[in-house]
Specification:
The chain is of the alpha/beta class and about 575 residues long. Helices cover about 40% and strands about 20% of the residues. The strands form five sheets. Strands 16-15-17-18-14-19-22 form a seven-stranded mixed beta sheet, sandwiched between helices. A six-stranded antiparallel beta sheet has the order 10-9-8-13-12-11, with helices on one face.
C-alpha cells in the first residue's frame, strides 16, 4: 500500500521528499498516511485520489447520484451512526458505479451471481473501517474512492443532520423529555459525548449551522415532519433531517426552550429568550423567538458571533470611506442609517461605535434588543413592559453625560425630537430609519412631525444600504450579456464591459450556490448647505434627489454596478436589491 501511495502522489506532482515527510509524520503520529499527505498541503486531494483510485483499481467518484428507490435499503444496510463513525457512504448496488460487474435482468449489480453493495470511502488505509464493514454488511462489498468533503456532504444529504444521534435515540426508545435537563448548567455545543441524547441532537443542528456560517436557524413544525432551515448569505436553505424526526419534535423544541431559559410549559403565547454558547472556544450569543402555530411551536434562532467591527469589513470604496471618517470625526449631529430589516444596519452602526470607542469617550446605546455586546460601551435594552422605551431611555441617557449616543431605531416623533435636541446640545447621535433610500429619510422625519429647520440643522447625513451576495472566488466566471439582457436588468451602460457571473452548480467552497458571503451596497446623502436650505424650504423629494446628485451623491444602484464591474458581485444581485426602489 505504501508503494501505491508513493507512486500515486508522485503521479499527482508531489516531490518524493514531500511524500516521505508525510509518511514519517503518519508513522510518528499514528495517523493514516493518506490523511497526512493531504493535510500537509503538498498535494491536491482530487488529483491525488484520482490517481490513487486508478492504482487500486477502484472507481473514483466526485458527486454520486443516488437512486431514490435504493435509499431506504441502503440506510437499512448502513445505518447513519455507522456511516458517520467510519466515514463511509453507501453509493448503491452497482448501477454503473463499479467498473467490473455483470447485471441481472432487473438491473442489480452482480458479482459471481450475488448482488453487491457499493461503498465509498476517502481513506483506503483505514483498515478498521474496512473490517467493521465486513462485519456489518449482509452483501459482498465493492469499494470506490471519494474526496473527504464530498463524502461527508453526501452522508449528510442521505441521512440528515444529526441522524446518527437520532438513530440511537429511537433505538433506545427516545423521543421524550427525560434527558432535557442533563448538562443544562453549561451550553457547550462542541462536546463530543458519545451518549445519545436530545442535547447532543440539538447541539449538532447548531454546530452545523455555525459550520455553514448561517445567521439564523428556523425550526418549523410541519404536519408530517419537522422542517429545519438555515439562512445563509440572506437566503433560506432547507437542510436534510432524519426520517421520522417528527417523533422528536416536542423534545427538540423543549430543549431549545430550556437552553434559552423559556417556560417549557407555556405553549400558547410567544416567548423571547437568549442562549450563551461556547463553540470551539468561541462565545456565541443566540437570540431565540418562539411563536405558537397550528402544528406546534415554531422557533427561530439568530446566531450572533463575537465579531470584530472594523471599517475594512464594510467593503466601502475609497470615496465613501473618506466620507464616513469625516462624519465620525464630527463632535455632534445625527447620522441616520436607513434600509429594510436584515440589510446590515446594526452591523454598520456597531462598526461606527467601535471606531469611536476609546477611554476618552462615553458611549451609551439603547437598543431593542442588544444584538452584540461591545466592551467599553454602555448598552441598554428596551423593555416596553416596564416603560423603558426608546424615548424614556434616551432622556435618561442624556442626563448621564454621554459623548456619543446610539438609538436602535427612531420610530416616533417623541424619540426623533429628543435625538434632534441631543445633537443640537453637542452629542453625536446614531440611529436607524426604515426608508427605501437615503434622501427619503429627510421626508420621513418631516412626515413624523419634526420641523424642517430642525432636520436641516441637526442631521449630518443619511446613509442607505442593502446586502448582496459575494461571488465565490473559486468558481466565478466571466459573463457575456446580450444588450436586451442588460436592458432588462437595468444596466445598459455595462455593455462591452467585463462582468462576472456565478457558475451554475457552484463548487464545494460555496456549497454549490456560486456565492460566498455578503457585502453591503451604500449611498450617502450629505446635508450640504444647499441641501439644508432646500429642506428648510420643504423642497420635494425629487428636487432633493437632483440636488444631492449635484453635490456628489452616488445612488446605490451605481455603487452596485461598480462592485459588479470589480468582480465582487453580479448584476443580478444588484438588480435584486435595488431595482424596485431605485431603478
Amino acid at each position: 500500500m505504501i508503494s501505491i501511495l508513493q507512486s500515486s502522489a508522485q503521479a499527482a506532482g508531489v516531490d518524493a521528499s514531500d511524500v516521505q515527510a508525510a509518511m514519517n509524520t503518519a508513522a510518528a503520529g499514528g495517523i493514516s498516511p493518506v490523511l497526512a499527505l493531504i493535510e500537509s498541503g503538498a498535494v491536491d486531494e482530487r488529483v491525488f485520489t484520482r490517481h490513487l483510485a486508478d492504482s487500486l483499481g477502484w472507481q473514483w467518484l466526485e458527486t454520486p447520484q443516488l437512486d431514490a428507490e435504493d435509499a431506504t435499503e441502503l440506510k437499512r444496510l448502513i445505518p447513519a451512526r455507522f456511516a458517520v463513525r467510519h466515514q463511509i457512504f453507501p453509493v448503491g448496488f452497482g448501477g454503473g458505479h463499479v467498473a467490473k460487474e455483470s447485471r441481472t435482468a432487473t438491473g442489480a449489480a452482480m458479482t459471481d451471481g450475488k448482488r453487491t453493495l457499493v461503498l465509498a470511502c476517502h481513506d483506503p488505509c483505514d483498515l478498521l473501517a474496512r473490517q467493521a464493514v465486513a462485519r456489518q454488511s449482509e452483501l459482498p462489498v465493492e469499494w470506490c474512492l471519494m474526496p473527504r468533503n464530498e463524502l461527508l456532504n453526501a452522508v449528510q444529504q442521505l441521512y440528515g443532520v444529526g441522524a446518527e444521534t437520532f438513530d440511537a435515540l429511537i433505538a433506545a426508545g427516545g423521543g421524550g423529555t427525560d434527558d432535557l435537563h442533563l448538562r443544562d448548567e453549561a451550553n457547550v455545543i462542541d462536546d463530543e459525548d458519545e451518549d445519545a441524547s436530545v442535547v447532543k441532537f440539538v447541539n449538532q443542528i447548531i454546530r452545523e449551522a455555525l459550520a455553514q456560517k448561517a445567521t439564523d436557524i428556523h425550526v418549523e413544525p410541519q404536519p408530517d415532519s419537522l422542517r429545519i432551515r438555515y439562512r445563509i448569505d440572506g437566503f433560506l436553505h432547507e437542510i436534510p433531517v432524519p426520517e421520522n424526526i417528527k417523533q422528536l419534535q416536542a423534545s427538540v423544541i423543549a430543549r431549545i426552550k430550556v437552553m434559552s431559559k423559556l417556560d417549557i410549559a407555556e405553549k400558547r403565547l410567544p416567548q423571547d429568550g437568549r442562549i450563551h454558547l461556547k463553540a470551539e472556544g468561541q462565545s456565541i450569543d443566540v437570540r431565540v423567538a418562539c411563536i405558537p402555530s397550528v402544528e406546534g411551536e415554531s422557533i427561530s434562532l439568530r446566531l450572533l458571533g463575537q465579531e470584530r467591527f472594523t471599517l475594512d469589513r464594510l467593503g466601502l470604496n475609497e470615496a465613501h470611506r473618506q466620507t464616513i471618517e469625516l462624519l465620525l470625526a464630527k463632535p455632534n449631529g445625527i447620522v441616520l442609517v436607513t434600509g429594510p430589516t436584515g440589510s446590515g444596519k446594526s452591523t454598520t452602526l456597531y462598526t461606527f461605535l467601535s471606531q469611536l470607542n476609546s477611554v476618552h469617550r462615553r458611549i451609551v446605546t439603547i437598543e431593542d434588543p442588544v444584538e452584540n455586546k461591545l466592551p467599553g460601551i454602555v448598552q441598554i435594552p428596551v423593555k416596553n413592559e416596564i416603560g423603558l422605551t426608546f424615548a424614556s431611555g434616551l432622556r435618561s441617557i442624556l442626563r448621564g453625560d454621554p459623548n456619543v449616543v446610539m438609538v436602535g431605531e427612531i420610530r416616533d416623533l417623541e424619540t426623533a425630537e429628543i435625538a434632534v435636541r441631543a445633537s443640537l446640545t453637542g452629542h453625536l447621535v446614531f440611529s436607524t430609519l426604515h426608508t427605501n433610500d437615503a434622501v427619503a429619510g429627510i421626508t420621513r422625519l418631516i412626515e413624523m412631525g419634526v420641523k424642517p429647520f430642525l432636520v436641516s440643522s441637526s442631521v449630518r447625513a443619511f446613509l442607505a444600504q442593502r446586502l448582496v451576495r459575494v461571488l465565490c472566488e473559486s468558481c466565478k466566471a466571466p459573463a457575456k450579456y446580450k444588450s436586451d439582457e442588460l436592458t432588462k436588468l437595468g444596466f445598459p451602460e455595462a455593455k462591452g464591459k467585463t462582468v462576472w457571473r456565478a457558475t451554475q452548480g457552484g463548487c464545494q467552497h460555496c456549497r454549490g450556490t456560486g456565492y460566498s458571503g455578503r457585502v453591503a451596497l451604500y449611498e450617502i446623502a450629505l446635508m450640504t448647505p444647499t441641501m439644508q436650505s432646500m429642506v428648510s424650504q420643504r423642497a420635494s423629494e425629487a428636487d432633493l434627489h437632483t440636488q444631492a446628485r449635484k453635490d456628489g451623491f452616488v445612488p446605490m444602484r451605481e455603487y452596485g454596478l461598480q462592485k459588479a464591474l470589480a468582480g465582487i458581485t453580479t448584476l443580478e444581485e444588484v438588480s435584486r436589491v435595488t431595482s424596485e426602489e431605485l431603478a
